[in-house]
Amino acid sequence: MNLDDLPIRDDLRGKSPYGAPQIDVPVRLNTNENPYPPSPGLIADLAEAVRASAADLNRYPDRDATALRADLAGYLGHGLTTEQVWAANGSNEVLQQILQAFGGHGRTAIGFEPSYSMHPIITSGTSTEWISASREDDFSIDPAKATAAIEEHRPDIVFLASPNNPTGTAQPLETIEAVVAAAPGMVVVDEAYAEFAREGTPSALTLLSAHPRLIVTRTMSKAFAMAGTRLGYLAAHPAVVEALLLVRLPYHLSTLTQAAARVALRHRAELLGTVDALRRERDDTVAWLRSKGLAVADSDANFVLFGRFPDRRKVWEGLLERGVLIREVGPPQWLRVSIGTGEEMAAFRAAMEGVL
Ligand code: PMP
């Protein structure tokens, strides 16, 4: 028997699952993780937190993750309170819960592509119809075209990734405000990479108090270097959090996840201490790729989109042969490299020299 023989939903037939290759190579620069592992001090505190919470593992976790949400609100600042923050297993689960509450059969969500590939996948996974709008050649979003697309399609949900994956492009607050003003439903600003933004690139968190239908999602997978913990979160109006309580599974966030995330938040000075180095490495990577005559998108994230290659697969394979795994993603002639340590980026540059 194969997949086609199963009585799966018609709208899932012929679809491919999310699939960034997980290949064991010396230099992995393909899933936008933070390359710096936890320090011995943090590992010891994580182990102690697991030990302490293990005594309670016969009981379900705090269903509403109240202490963790309070810590996350404290981290975000902007006067946000526990009631305005929600958390789940990665921001992907947060996004799925948003789709479950505000999308669904007969409803639509719009995004501006190229953008994060999971937005359409989560959208169709919840039987919501995906509408693809496009970006400009420099990967920016034209506010007038965006509002026109929203007025035409009247989507229930608008996705704006800022900084955007895979292009690294951040949205000016004016564009977000124009979109919120035009949108009849919810607007989700996916800020998975917010901590990597360049000086002067603002967060949509500043807009929350004026816009009750705006949701800002974040994650501990990137700047916080906790991708393995699976902890994503959002900030929004308290009523939005109430809506998500209607769809979340009870006890979705394990006791161990909540404990580990709280330890990581206590260690945030150390964890976020790597962000400056990664930003510098990113800016150096952009400059180096440009010095090689390549096209490079401006990046506010911990990755860089570069091209244009008539045969990008060949470049990707050439790098892999040299022990460097990057991502074949985005528009056809482009490739994306995540920013690693100084040594990893030196290996990337050496491999690129070889390929070019
Ligand atoms: N949003 C964007 C834009 C991303 O690039 C990613 C990870 N690739 C996510 C959300 C999801 O991350 P996580 O589920 O690990 O929080």
Give an account of the 3D structure.
Pathway: Amino-acid biosynthesis; L-histidine biosynthesis; L-histidine from 5-phospho-alpha-D-ribose 1-diphosphate: step 7/9. This is Histidinol-phosphate aminotransferase. Residues 27-347 form the Aminotransferase class I/classII large domain. GO terms for molecular function: histidinol-phosphate transaminase activity. Keywords: Amino-acid biosynthesis, Aminotransferase, Histidine biosynthesis, Pyridoxal phosphate, Transferase. By secondary structure, this protein is of the alpha/beta class. The protein folds into 2 domains: 22-37 and 273-355, Aspartate Aminotransferase, domain 1, CATH 3.90.1150.10; 40-269, Type I PLP-dependent aspartate aminotransferase-like (Major domain) (Aspartate Aminotransferase, domain 2, 3-Layer(aba) Sandwich), CATH 3.40.640.10. Helices cover 37% and strands 14% of the residues. It has helices at residues 40-54, 66-76, 90-102, 118-125, 143-153, 173-182, 238-245, 255-266, 268-271, 275-291, 312-321, 342-355, and strands spanning 27-28, 85-88, 108-113, 129-134, 157-161, 186-190, 214-219, 232-235, 295-296, 303-307, 324-325, 335-338. Helix 1 packs antiparallel against helix 8, helix 2 (66-76) runs parallel beside helix 8 (255-266) and helix 5 (143-153) packs parallel to helix 6. The longest helix has 17 residues, at 275-291. The chain is globular, with a radius of gyration of 20 Å. 44% of the residues are buried. It binds 4'-deoxy-4'-aminopyridoxal-5'-phosphate (PMP). The site of 4'-deoxy-4'-aminopyridoxal-5'-phosphate (PMP) has 13 residues, from helix 3. Residues 32, 90-92, 116, 161, 165, 190, 192, 219, 221, 227, 232 line the site of 4'-deoxy-4'-aminopyridoxal-5'-phosphate.
